[in-house]
Amino acid sequence: MARNSSFTDTLLSDDELVNKQLAKLHGGTQRFKTLARIKLSKKKFDTATRLKDMWTKEDEKSHEYKVFILDTKPLQTKEKWNELIQKGITHLTIEDNDNKLKAISPDVSNILTLRSFTLIWSKVKTIPDHLLQMDHLSELRFDKCALKSIDNIQLGQALRHLELTNAGLKTIPLEIGNVTALMTLNLTGNQLKTLPISMANLNQLQTLKACGNKFSVVPACIEELKTLDTLDLSQNHIGQIPDGIGNLSSLTTLRMSHNNIAILPASFVNLKRLVNLYLGYNAFAEVPEQLANLSALQALNMASNGIKTIKATPKSLKILLLDKNQLEELPPAVFECEHLEVLQVANNRIGEIPAQIDRLEMLRTLHAGGNPLSGIPADRCLPPQLRHLSLCDTRIKNPPAQLRRLQNLHLLDLQRTEVKESYRRVLQADDIKLLVADLTPEDGQQEENKVSSGDATGPLKSQGSKIKRETLYPPS
């Protein structure tokens, strides 16, 4: 392994260190200042190595100095806080896995350079006043903490980014409306059934994430947040999107997957800036026609609904996910999306891929596995830019050998098909490397990477998907 302290992801595992029976983790690993992950399974440690604080000094231009504290015992001493003060840290993260931290010391308010504070896995039940009153603290994050209440939240007048995630919160106090500098609010993974109407006062809020709660309706205050750029209400119990959603004219990303939504309101056509729309795992029987009028829309996920027909689609689409529906064919509306780069229609009832597929000249990824396909068109009908083609779990027996002439084809998935070995020999004879990948999503997982307006050409990867590559050679 090269000596490189700039590693951002170092893995120490049996795969990486074959036949290395480690019994000790040497102190030199502390040089990896940006270490993000370390795997030490199946080794022969007889003692647990104490993980020390991880310090990261950014370049002089950014003026950022970060520390990640894993051992909270020293935080009970003045000496430790004085060290943090003297070094002028800007970002402090404390992970309290052993629950030794009883309270957040008032000494934290003496770190005048501190801009971001994060607490993880702690039984601290309240956010102390002295932390909220730090006028230079702009980011506050409590994750997996046992917060009982945040009734003093109005003290955080300087906060711009607030994350209270996986904390078991059942209510948000009215006082949240007084924290008017907020630009980002993340309430993911709580037990909220509503949000206070006072949140309508947050006139600078750009991002609101409240997925994984217990909403049955969209909270009324959201309709008034006209500065919102990103809204995430996925994994709730919402049955209807209110007409007031059309007021959010600045919205570019809307995530409402894993709800019970069947229709969109007429006002949805007012979301002229919408770029990313995620409606997977709902109850739609068709792709809503309102979407055809959204000329900025680039990524649309409607996987795992009950979609049988598609009457119209936005022609601006670059990514279209329709896996796990009830489509019996690829309708003409899909072939009007001339900018389409990723098309996923796996696990439907599609019997053939029509020749019109060649109209999608920009298409790079086509996932059509899990359909009753018995054939595919010759390569002259397949888009020339195609790089990834998944036909796993189909009835295909003899794909046209001309596929090898698709010069950009990088990955061809033919797992669990009846393709004969002779087809593989044809590819091998022309020095074609046939790659097989399992691109079948795991049950219940088909989430998307955000495709922003600044990077809309990147392929949409499915979180929870397994990609395993192996080269197929003819038998020796």
Structural overview:
Residues 467-476 have a biased composition (Basic and acidic residues). Residues 114-233 form the Disease resistance R13L4/SHOC-2-like LRR domain. Residues 439-476 are annotated as: Disordered. This is Disease resistance R13L4/SHOC-2-like LRR domain-containing protein. By secondary structure, the protein is mainly beta. The protein has two domains: 138-274, Ribonuclease Inhibitor (Leucine-rich repeat, LRR (right-handed beta-alpha superhelix)); 275-476, Ribonuclease Inhibitor (Leucine-rich repeat, LRR (right-handed beta-alpha superhelix), Alpha-Beta Horseshoe). It is built from three helices and 21 strands. The strands form three sheets. The chain has a 17-stranded mixed sheet, with no helix packed on it. Strands 18-21 form a two-stranded antiparallel ribbon. It has a two-stranded antiparallel sheet with strand order 19-20.
Tell me the layout of helices and strands.
Blueprint: E1 54-57, E2 65-69, H1 78-87, E3 91-95, E4 116-120, H2 129-132, E5 139-143, E6 161-165, E7 184-186, E8 207-209, E9 230-232, E10 253-255, E11 276-278, E12 299-301, E13 319-321, E14 342-344, E15 365-367, E16 388-390, E17 411-413, H3 421-429, E18 435-437, E19 447-448, E20 462-463, E21 469-471
Parallel strand pairs: 2-3, 3-4, 4-5, 5-6, 6-7, 7-8, 8-9, 9-10, 10-11, 11-12, 12-13, 13-14, 14-15, 15-16, 16-17
Antiparallel strand pairs: 1-2, 18-21, 19-20
Main attributes of the structure:
5% helix, 476 residues, 2 domains, elongated, Leucine-rich repeat, LRR (right-handed beta-alpha superhelix), disordered C terminus, mainly beta, 17-stranded mixed beta sheet, single chain, disordered N terminus, 3 helices
